[in-house]
Amino acid sequence: MSVSPAVAQAASQTYEFNIPPKPVRQALNDIVRETGIDVTFAETPNASLAGRPVRGTMSAEQAVAALLSGTGLTYHFSGPRTVSITDRSIAGHAASAEGGATTLSPIIAIAKDSRNPADIPYETAGSNSHISADQIARVPPTSAGDIFKNAPGVIASGNRVGASVDVNVRGLQGQNRVNLMVDGTRQSSHSYRGYRGSRNEVFIDPDFLGGVDIAKGPGAGAGGVGAMGGVINMRTLEGTDLLEPGKDWALRVKGGVGGNTIAPPSPALSFGYDPITRPREAGSDIFNGDSWSGSMVGAVAGDEYELLAGFSRRKSGNYFAGSNGQSTYAGKALSPIGPGKEVFNTSQDMESFLGKGSMQWGDGHSLSLSYIYYANKYGNIDENFLPYISGPTSYYRLAQTELSKTQTHTAKASYEYQFAHENLIGLKANVWLTDVATKGGIVNYYSGGTTAGGRVLKSVESSIRTLGGDIATDWEFETGVGTLTMTNGVEFVHETAKENGEFGITGAYVGANPNGSRVLASAFNQSKLEVNDWLSLMAGLRLDYFDNQGDQDSLKDFDYASASRLNPSVGVTLEPVEGLQFFGTYSQGWRPLSLRETAVSIGFTPNPYLKPETSANMEFGLNVKHDDVFRAGDSLKLKAAYFDSSYDNFIGRERYVTPEGFWLYRWDNIADATFRGYELSASYDAEVFFLEAAVTYYSDVKFCRDKEANLITLVIPAGCGLEKLPFDYGMMNVPPKYSGSLTVGTRLLDQKLTLGARAYFFGERVGGYAHYTGSHTKAPAYHADQIVDLFGSYKVDEHSSLDFSVENLGDKYYLDPLSTGLVPSPGRTFRASFTRRF
After folding, report:
1. What is the spatial distance between Cα 791 and Cα 114, in angstroms, rounded to a whole number?
2. pTM to 2 decimals?
3. With 0-12 CB in 10 A as exposed, 13-18 as middle and 19+ as buried, what is 498?
4. CA gap 751, 733 in Å, rounded
5. Are 439 and 459 in contact (CB under 8 A)?
6. Separation between Cα atoms, residue 604 and residue 445, nearest integer Å
7. Which residues, listed in sequence order, are joined to residue 493 by a DSSP beta bridge?
8. Which of 30, 458, 627, 726 has the most CB atoms around it within 10 Å of its CB?
9. Residues contacting 801, CB < 8 A, separation 6+
């Protein structure tokens, strides 16, 4: 098979493949994912037709040739990255192509979701982001939320107060506004934090992450029901992440040590009584044995199956804050935990297990099963009390408190069928179950399990079990105006939250976390019409429904305990030249009432007139994706976007006056909230040198009331501004004016040695840190800052590598942006790990 000179350079680039025998269509998807070529069919091949295995280092053309050998199919490269496939049995109906190959007019195209995940954000209309496993591993996260430092528009809120992750996407978080998933499953757990609000908590072992995919704004496909702020999926390892070309088994063993931590002391009985624990100061030891991790992951693959299993263990003590930098803001201490001091309640003792299996059979059928177990005994900071610690005579004092314990179980089954139908390309179905249970620590304190003196009365457990599933079909049609692809599907989610807290002297339940259930359901369509090479039109429509059931008798009086809404989306992409896209999108979203708002009694009077939130999101931007820009073999990717997100009937905590003259709290709607700004993400890789950047800038953030709130002694006029929602926890969720990261690195010694640095930077909070009249919740103040991390990796041999990093090189004393408490971040931290692959 000859190739024209125009494609010679692209055809000479080599890739590593490890594709077992499988249906041709599935195997071609694997090749497309690895190489980025486009494949078209003159006619759909028989779905049961198996291709040859493709293993080893080879070019895209060599991989296609190896796959099709002996199948009766032939191929022809008509451009640098475009190949058409033809069945020889119908060759007589077509003209001969160059070099004797036979082609027909292309009818069926390989599904676009087979692209490299790292490339998808730069080929997609709208602001998507991807965080790779390599990015996560460069500077291992002290807190799980550290992994989002590489993504624009996403910040882990309250990142230092516990082991969970609670994300803020473009200013929106809490009450299930953002769907943060693990392998497409939801955990949906809640944790009440007093005046600091509540956390949507997700627990994950970073050692098992294979990548993170982020879609901002309302999600049009599976996972988008009820989440108008964004959909984030943290993907765990697959066999393909471990298996090397030409091998059918793999084993990865990894061990590491870290510094800047110390084993936690025994807990004090309370915040103000009995033994008072004094924070210790950082020692001179780089590694003292109090921070270590280890994991083992193995995979086995055959012609029709793949198995993976892994176990991970991680332990770290309380970390120490940095010693350098500003320790006050406007004359007040940034935190009662001073520079260089031990930060109580930041330890972790975690173990996790990952098991996955998949099999393929017949004419395109496949089934996958997975199970994840996670257990952690960790410090959980009650950030609510930190602002009230004012010295040695304060009622509240720094203390090591009871550790929290969380266990999660995640099970999932997935079925896929690749059709031989002319227009129906494939069917995918998933069903999953997650169970998250937390006891001790914060849960005990707020739900009646601990006395005011700190004595444990009972072990209160707060849990949530979530069952979900989705079914979707992919279609493709040739129309008179272009190629139409669409995905149609349905999904459902059923949440059941329970807590065994105490009852007060009046007989009323005083637990702070939900007791109730919620059902979410949705039918959705995503469509794309490729009119020609430079114009594509997108449209989507989803019908969302929810139904809440709480243990409160008053829930039956809610006007909106169940409701539904139709949410449309549209978009356009222009590609005047290959590798340059201009896009514009508009989408509507809907956020049903959460269990936090309808199934919690403590501190709130139920509001039967509470309405769901709706959103309108606009984006305009451009994508750039080019190879061979400044030198042969380099790669440039860039995405820039302007976003305008408005949320009607925005829900916040409000005060109101009863007829008897009492001030009480309840959830209520205001007219709307608005977040506008700009995002930029870019990467450049020239093999010996690489650079990555991510920046977010907010041009406008405001909350608007359409009518005056008259609380007799306090009047809040109608209008817009941050001061219009003074009683809500959401005041802490207002993002910094700007934030981002810049990573630079180099590969030396024939790419055996990688060295690099990352600068994470952020400004002050939008609107400053004013304590608005009547507010009990003041956002923690933090300085604008730049934190520099170093990282490196050395390949000892073909199968072994030594990795090292220094977090917070300048040992700065600082608070993270979106800190929910006065909790300083870790100081200078050294880490080293050794990985061996078999």
Report:
1. 31
2. 0.86
3. middle
4. 42
5. yes
6. 18
7. 468, 520
8. 726
9. 793, 794, 795, 834, 835
Question: What does 736-755 look like in DSSP terms, one character per residue?
Answer: BSEEEEEEEEEEETTTTEEE
β-partners of residue 360 are 366
Is the C-alpha dihedral spanning 41, 42, 47, 49 positive or negative? negative
What tokens were used for 283?
A: 């020692």
Considering 87, 112, 137, which residue would you say is the last residue of a domain? Answer: 112
Spatial neighbors of 774 by CB under 8 A, at least 6 apart, are: 655, 711, 714, 716, 726, 727
Q: Is residue 324 part of a domain?
A: yes
Domain assignment of residue 20, given as a range: 5-112
CATH code where residue 692 lies: 2.40.170.20
Of the residues 112, 137, 170, which one is the last residue of a structural domain?
112
14-59 confidence digits (pLDDT tens): 787 878 777 777 788 788 878 878 787 655 555 456 677 787 778 8
Of 153, 230, 64, 145, nearest to 819 by C-alpha is 145
Q: Where is average pLDDT lowest: 451-455, 573-577, 584-588, 755-759?
A: 451-455
Lowest mean pLDDT of 303-317, 415-429, 522-536, 702-716, name the range: 415-429
Burial code of 452-462, b = ≥16 C-beta within 10 A, e = fewer?
eebeeeeebbb
Distances (CA, A) of 428 to 219, 231, 264, 413: 18, 19, 47, 11
Query: Both tokens of residue 410?
Result: 């995640």
In a domain, 151, yes or no: no
Domain count, the chain: 2
For 754, the token pair is 């990688």
Give the pLDDT of residue 107. 33
| Residue 661 located in a structural domain | yes
Spatial separation of the C-alpha atoms in residues 404 and 318, rounded to whole Å = 14
Give pLDDT, residue 135: 93
On whether residue 219 sits in a domain, the answer given is no
Would you give the distance in Å from CA 696 to the centre of its chain?
17
Task: Return the CATH number at 105.
Answer: 3.55.50.30
Give residue 679's pLDDT.
97
Q: Which residue has the tokens 């049903």?
A: 592
CB contact at 8 A, 441 and 380: yes
326 phi and psi angles, rounded to 5 deg: -75, 130
